[in-house]
Write a structure and sequence with these properties.
The chain has six helices and no strands. With 175 residues, it is mainly alpha-helical. The chain has one domain.
Length: 175
């Protein structure tokens, strides 16, 4: 239980550092959070694949939404800023740990995504000065629908890499 609480607190610390610091040296805190997380995990390989997959998939999704005009960073851009991409990396650190309880049944992840996803975006947009050109409520409704699908998918990534890791361990033991 203490590691789960530490995981949640480290996620929040990294989230605040990224959102409030933007693309600044504050991002070193995110690096520290990820390093501590990887030191605590039993499998660097499986967890690293998960973090990388969540980072890539989330960055692509947010960049797609940016190009649809859902976000306004006050300057023309086609990809999201690094600080926003790193929030996905941080989210990946929670899937097998403090958010593992949402993996089964699938609707828990969907419900958490539908509520928590838009709230996180709204809070981040307010703190970081990000505009929501389509106004608040339509944007939150869109994000809610997207996140209701995204969270179970991310848990699917976690399950896949966990199963691959367990299979490798069984293979090693039987050799």
């Amino acid at each position: 239980m203490p590691k789960l609480i530490a995981n949640a607190l480290l996620f929040q610390l990294g989230w605040l550092a990224a959102v409030l610091g933007g693309d600044s040296p504050w991002l070193l805190i995110v690096g520290g959070v990820v390093a501590v997380h990887l030191l605590w995990t039993s499998s660097w390989a499986a967890e690293g694949k998960l973090l990388f997959s969540v980072f890539l998939a989330g960055s692509a999704l947010d960049s797609f939404l940016l190009n649809l005009g859902v976000f306004d960073f006050g300057e023309p851009r086609t990809v999201i800023p690094l600080w926003l991409a790193l929030l996905w990396l941080l989210l990946g650190t929670t899937l097998n740990h403090c958010l593992a309880w949402t993996a089964q049944p699938w609707w828990r992840a969907s419900l958490l995504g539908a509520i928590g996803g838009p709230l996180s975006y709204y809070g981040g947009a307010q703190l970081a000065g990000i505009g929501l050109p389509h106004s608040t409520w339509p944007t939150l409704a869109l994000l809610s629908a997207i996140w209701a699908l995204v969270m179970p998918l991310l848990h699917g990534f976690a399950k896949l890499y966990r199963a691959q890791h367990e299979q490798r361990l069984r293979t090693r033991r039987s050799s």
